């Protein structure tokens, strides 16, 4: 039974992330960077004991290891979460299902970046699957209507969702690299701490007059729920699974995120996707299922 724990961990984290969109949409009136800052600050405090226990591992990190940690903290922790939270703030212009499905462009971006940075050649199969994913993503977002008929808010929300996918996709490879040098609890704690510090600097720079006292009791409740379920807790569980699984397997198990999110959006919000959007979702997910074969398992 133990051999199934890593896979079950990634699936459980993916299901938690599908709930995350509902929770974040309740905080749409707060600045997105404030949400990112507070959730990571609270998460960093909770995970502080792991930071102390891993002090020796952290001191032994070389320059490449620190680059990996800072990249997953800035791209995966700060930018990815910010873009995703901001996209969900357009709750009246785009469905949760669409935002979540667009996240599955992550491996597409990861492989493209590997080709650009590591000079790995594009295969014809990759280009075909990439085109297939883009077509699927278009129909998921716009259905049968031309892009010119979409509102500016819908376009902005979709673009933010894709930027989140780019940020998270670019940090996947480096996250795996960091796990070769640090245990998964230390990676999680270090990422939360670095993200919290950088986000706090950004928050005070962009919103110098913003006051934490403006947060209502209800919003605090949702922030705490995010930290102890879909935020730090889910990240901790996910890194445990990622530490024991090849990247291609992890990508497949993560598909429970969009699938459960679409189901929940229909059951809770009664927002079904149109036939064209459903077909687009199937095309997009099929391309993503086949895409990991284009990259090595140890990526």
Report on the architecture of this protein.
- This protein has 299 residues and is mainly α.
- Helix 1 (5-25) packs parallel to helix 14.
- 75% of the residues lie in helices and 0% in strands.
- The mean pLDDT is 81.
- It has one domain (2-294).
SSE map:
Blueprint: H1 5-25, H2 32-46, H3 48-53, H4 55-59, H5 63-88, H6 96-102, H7 106-117, H8 124-142, H9 152-178, H10 184-206, H11 217-230, H12 232-244, H13 247-253, H14 256-269, H15 275-290
Oligomeric description of these chains: single chain
Radius of gyration: 19 Å
- The total of helices stands at 15
Shape: globular
Keywords:
globular, 299 residues, mainly alpha
Write a brief caption for the model.
With 299 residues, the chain is mainly α. The chain is 75% helix and 0% strand.
């Amino acid at each position: 039974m133990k051999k199934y724990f890593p896979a079950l961990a990634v699936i459980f984290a993916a299901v938690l992330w599908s709930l995350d969109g509902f929770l974040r949409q309740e905080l749409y009136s707060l600045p997105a960077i404030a949400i990112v800052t507070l959730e990571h600050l609270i998460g960093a405090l909770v995970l502080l004991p792991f930071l102390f226990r891993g002090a020796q591992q952290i001191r032994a990190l070389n320059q490449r290891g620190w680059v990996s940690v800072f990249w997953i903290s800035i791209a995966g922790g700060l930018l990815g979460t910010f873009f995703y939270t901001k996209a969900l703030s357009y709750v009246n212009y785009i469905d949760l299902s669409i935002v979540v499905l667009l996240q599955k462009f992550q491996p597409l971006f990861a492989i493209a970046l590997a080709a650009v940075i590591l000079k790995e050649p594009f295969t014809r199969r990759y280009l075909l699957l990439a085109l297939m994913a883009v077509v699927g993503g278009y129909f998921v977002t716009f259905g049968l209507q031309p892009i010119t008929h979409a509102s500016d808010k819908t376009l902005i929300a979709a673009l933010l969702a894709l930027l989140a996918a780019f940020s998270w996709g670019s940090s996947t490879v480096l996250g795996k690299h960091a796990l070769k040098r640090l245990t998964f609890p230390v990676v999680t704690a270090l990422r939360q701490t670095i993200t919290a510090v950088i986000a706090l600097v950004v928050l005070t720079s962009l919103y110098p007059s913003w006051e934490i006292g403006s947060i209502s009791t209800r919003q605090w409740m949702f922030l705490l729920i995010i930290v102890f379920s879909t935020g730090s807790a889910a990240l901790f569980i996910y890194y445990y699974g990622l530490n024991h699984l090849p990247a291609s397997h992890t990508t497949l198990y993560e598909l429970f995120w969009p699938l459960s999110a679409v189901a929940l959006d229909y059951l809770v919000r009664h927002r079904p996707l149109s036939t064209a959007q459903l077909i687009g979702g199937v095309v997009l997910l099929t391309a993503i299922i086949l895409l990991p074969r284009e990259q090595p398992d140890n990526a």
